[in-house]
Amino acid sequence: MILRVMLLFLFISPPKVFSPDGTGKKLTIVMNIPDTLRTQITTLNLLRECSDGKLDTLNILPFLKTYTDNELDYRKEYRYKILAYSNGNLIYESEWSEYARPTAKWFDKGKLPLFIVMMVFTIIMIFYIAQARANKPLYLRPIAGLEAVNEAIGRATEMGRPIIYINGLTGISDIATIAALNILSHVTKRAGQFETRIVVPCYDPVVYTIAREIVKEAYTTIGRPDLFNPDDVYFATDSQFGYAAHVAARMVREQSATNFFMGYYFAESLILSETGASTGAIQVAGTDSVAQLPFFVVTCDYTLIGEELYAASAYLSREPLLTGTIKAQDLAKLLLVIIMVLLSLLSLFNVNITLGLF
Amino acid sequence: MSVRDFFIKLSKIDRKYIYLIILIGLIIPLVFPPNFPQKMSPQVKRVFEFIDTLPKGSYVILSADYDPSVAPEVHPMYKAVVKHCILRGIIPIGMTLGVQGAGLAVEAFTEAERVLGARRDTDYVFLGYQAGGAVVILGLGEDIKGVYKTDYFGTKTTEIYALKPVKNYKDIALVISFSGSSIPVTWAVYAYTKYGVKVAAAVTGVSAGDFYPYIQAGQFIGMLAGMKAAAEYEYAVNQILKERNIREKPSTDAIRMMDANSIGQLLIILFIIIGNIGYFLSRRRK
Amino acid sequence: MRHLFEKQIPLALVFIIGIIMTIQYFVPHPTSQNVYDTSLMWSRAISSMAYVMAIISFLRFHTKRLKNKNYAPYSLVAILSFTAMVLIGFIGGTAKDSLFQKIYENMMVPLQATTFSLLAFYMSSAAYRAFRIRGVEATVLMITAFIVIFGTTTIGNYVPKMNEIVEWIMAVPNLASKRGIIIGVGLGVVATSIKIILGIERNWVGG
Fold it and tell me: TM spans, by residue (chain B) (predicted)?
């Protein structure tokens, strides 16, 4: 028995400690506990000593072979010792490991491919912006939904009924909402030229404050600040179905002539669009929510699918700088498709290259 | 009024009547359940037959990784699979990676006790919730009793009779992850890829589309997707209960809901057909 | 002066903070993480202020509507419900068994479920109206929808090969187009973000 215990001590090394990433907060401890001993362990503790002398005990799951210690300080060093217990009795105590410092790096090498792709994309964008600035005509294919914006606003003007514009059900941190707000500016300017009322019920408080300023500024830009009615851009509620019920009720009571659904939507999308369809309104939707696109396609007159929502601002304004970025987007997509097709073909011949991108 | 005029008028019917017909079509099967026979689809059949042909005394892990929001679709599946295992003498080991799943899983096992007279720690084991996600999945591959020192009810796992022959995935015939999110993928990545244990998914209908690539790659042996799969499995288990002359009223939650669902969908198909007939006839007239 | 505060300063701020946060994403150093944590705190503080403005807007909107006899009853209910919940929450607390939670669970949740259930009816009227054989694409849409709807009913299992066809539609064309849209959206998001950071897109600040 004593020989067995001595032999065990001979074969068990102190834990190995290394820094798994560059966040400066983590250390991974590798514990080489033999399986024969592991089955007896009921409690496994790691004793952690900091370079400033502070001692802590960490209780970890007994079956773990590695453990990552979080929330450390990259300015200090740490070392670890394994303490294994079986029913309260200490059965194993390792030597202290070497001191290790959580590494704090200034660049995450794992994100290098992403960085390269981002730089390539930015360079392409700058190239096309320069082309657009040099007044070279850039062709954009017609997008039915965007061509119909004028028609939709005109209809509301003729019928003397308001336009309802919805920015989606996500906050300002979602790019789809920002794209929706960009389109709101265009739509407001065009509607303002015909003195057509535009109603913007908002779901998110921050989006409400921004939408309010956008509408106000849009009217001011076209020289009609008097058209701005603060009660037309308002916060409805931040309850999903409460918002859907409110907007649906508003559509039915005011009999809006035109509805715009731009942004990100969830399950309430069909409630909004079908109610609008039942009132006979012309509806234009634009969303990057893949799950809700079928509902909009079926119930709306025009739908902007995915990236068409992001292209809308450039399309409506026809500003050279913005159209240049659309061309850049298209080229980047083309390059991506070529790479995917090539890599797929190569994989048919068992040549598997991912370039660190996929 | 001619037949043509009838169809043209019908194709322009006010939506109020459509809603009324749908309402009646959904309420009647919920109040007076027709209990249509549910034939098994291929994916469900794969999972069912796998369990059905396991030798008596095999072990299956049933991980209740779902919450109350998806319970109407997924919970009937869990209950049906638990009963199926116990009826075939297979020992289900219940567990969950999400806190909310524990209560739902206990309900399923309690129902099995009531209907089949199943005995805890002999005919089934419920380990409960363990935090850690992928770490737990990996840990089960080394030592199940090491990950779960006690079961959900506080009994030491080393003392549970049914768990005595079980150490890790090598002793487990199948793992089924019941979830409303992408947790089954984590099971496929860690449990199947590293340890080779067979995995199946039981998911909501909406998320099922995302898991087909894993079935095609062989990482899942099959999939129970949505209300339809729940109804099919439930029906098959109820047939076994009937064969064994078990008197307790079988669970028909999923079957009832699927019957209403089917009638609703058939009504939609009918409306589409009528709408198109009327549309064609009105175009011809022009 | 107005131009400086309403346009130039916001654009400059967005540019500087946009570049900082882009660099932050690639830098794992704890200093970078502190910048991220601080920016999250700031955005939470801004959201809280926005809530104050939103509530003022909500109350103002409904108070004005009290004068209109068509909308008055609904606006009255909205204002009274809002006031009641605020008072109940402040006085009785929002803990698990509080009156606030009971009202939420017994009124809000069923109301949400009721509104959600409208989808069943709206789906049928939308399908009825939309699935007409108008052209090639509409016909393909209709046939696909027909197969998938029928295949997911109980009777669909009795039609030979129906399940395989439905599975193929969901696993191949459906998933492929979904992934294509997601790739396009990803590029659109990157492009829009760069445009906003570089100040090319200015509509959010008034054009």
Answer: 17-36, 263-281
Q: How far is CA B28 from the centre of its chain?
A: 24
Task: Examine the domain organization and report whether A26 and A154 are in the same domain.
Answer: no
Residue among A178, A207, A229, A287 with most chain C CBs within 10 A, to mutate? A178
Alpha-carbon separation of residue A170 from A180, A262, A297 (angstroms) = 11, 11, 20
Q: What residues of C are in contact with residue A178 (Cβ under 8 Å)? A: 192, 196, 204
CB contact under 8 Å between C153 and B43, yes or no, is no
Cβ atoms of A164 and A321 within 8 Å: the answer is no
ipTM of the complex: 0.90
In chain B, the residue whose alpha carbon lies closest to the alpha carbon of A38 is B146
Cβ separation of B132 and A61 shorter than 8 Å?
A: yes
Quick one: pLDDT at residue B26?
93
Chain C residues in contact with B228 (beta carbon < 8 A): 152, 154
3-state secondary structure (DSSP) of residue B37: coil
B47's tokens = 């999972």
Grouping H, G, I as helix, E, B as strand and the rest as coil, residue B245 is coil
* Domain range enclosing A20: 2-93
State CA A113 to chain mean position distance: 19
Taking only the tens place, the pLDDT of each residue in A240-299 is 999 999 999 999 999 999 999 999 999 999 999 999 999 999 999 999 999 899 999 999
CB–CB contact B258 C123 (8 Å): no
DSSP summary character for residue C171: I
Do C124 and C191 sit in the same domain of this protein?
yes
Chain C CB contacts of B281 under 8 Å are none
What are the φ and ψ backbone dihedral angles of C132, each rounded to 5 degrees? Answer: -120, 145
B36·C154 Cβ contact <8 A: yes
Q: How confident is the model over B211-233, as pLDDT tens digits?
A: 988 998 899 999 999 999 999 99
Query: In terms of DSSP bridges, do strands A66-69 and A27-30 run parallel, antiparallel, or are they unpaired?
Result: antiparallel
The DSSP annotation for A191-257 comes to: HHHTT--EEEEESSHHHHHHHHHHHHHHHHHTT-GGG--GGGEEE--SSHHHHHHHHHHHHHHHT-S
3-state secondary structure of A322: helix
Decide if B183 contacts B177 (C-beta within 8 A).
yes
Residues 19-48 of B with CB under 8 A from C: 19, 22-23, 26, 36-43
Report yes or no on C76 lying in a domain: yes
CATH class of B42-251: alpha beta
Packing angle, helices B42-52 and B71-87, rounded to 10 = 30
Residue B121, classed as helix, strand or coil, is: coil
Which positions ≥6 away from B104 have C-beta within 8 Å?
Answer: B64, B66, B67, B68, B71, B75, B78
Residue A337 · residue A331 · CB < 8 Å: no
B209 to chain A nearest CA, in Å?
11
Low-confidence residues in chain A, pLDDT < 70? 1-12, 354-358
Residues C167 and C123 in one domain: yes
Residue A207 included in any domain: yes
Q: In what order do the strands lie in the sheet with B125-129?
A: B125-129, B91-96, B59-65, B174-179, B199-203, B223-225
> Which pTM was predicted?
0.86
Mind telling me how many Å the CA of B16 is from chain C's nearest CA?
9
Report the alpha-carbon distance of residue C102 to residue C89 in Å, rounded: 11
